[in-house]
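Practice problem: predict the structure.
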Amino acid sequence: MHLDLGNNFRGIETSEGVCGGEPCVVRTRIPVWVLEQARRLGTDEGTLLRAYPSLCAEDLANAWAFVRARKPEIELQIREHEAS
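Answer:
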């Protein structure tokens, strides 16, 4: 089942059974929280784009917009993954 997040989050999708249902960049299995955690740890966008060659600058812009709009959700996902 694919959940539509609306136009505000173009390029981000949440699908049951994919990455635990966490929001991911479309066409990838890269969760938004992974990108945000890398950014918080000081990874710049150029390094992220080299590390994930399937991403483009627009994907990162979409991810950052999603983080701004859904910050509590992303922070919870980061905490949950740090604890595991």
